[in-house]
Amino acid sequence: VPDNSPPPASPRPPTIAVDGMGGDHGPAQVVAGAIAAAAEHGISVVLTGRPSQLRPLLGTRTPGGDIRVVPADDSLGMDEGALASWRRPRSSVAVACQLIRRGQAAAVVSAGSTAGIVATARLRLRSLPGLMRPGLAVVLPTGPKPTLLVDAGAIADPKPEMMLQFAQLGVAYAQVAFGVEDPRVGLLTIGTEPVKGNRLTRRAHELLTAPPHGGLPIRFTGNIEGSDLLSGKVDVIVTDGFTGNVALKTIEGAGAFATEQMRAAFQGSRAARFGALFQRRALSELAGRMDAETYGGAALLGLEGTVVIAHGASTAKGITSACGLAADLARGRITERVRERLGPGHRGGHFLRRP
Amino acid sequence: VPDNSPPPASPRPPTIAVDGMGGDHGPAQVVAGAIAAAAEHGISVVLTGRPSQLRPLLGTRTPGGDIRVVPADDSLGMDEGALASWRRPRSSVAVACQLIRRGQAAAVVSAGSTAGIVATARLRLRSLPGLMRPGLAVVLPTGPKPTLLVDAGAIADPKPEMMLQFAQLGVAYAQVAFGVEDPRVGLLTIGTEPVKGNRLTRRAHELLTAPPHGGLPIRFTGNIEGSDLLSGKVDVIVTDGFTGNVALKTIEGAGAFATEQMRAAFQGSRAARFGALFQRRALSELAGRMDAETYGGAALLGLEGTVVIAHGASTAKGITSACGLAADLARGRITERVRERLGPGHRGGHFLRRP
Question: In this complex, do A275 and B272 lie within 8 Å of one another by their Cβ atoms?
Answer without folding.
Answer: yes
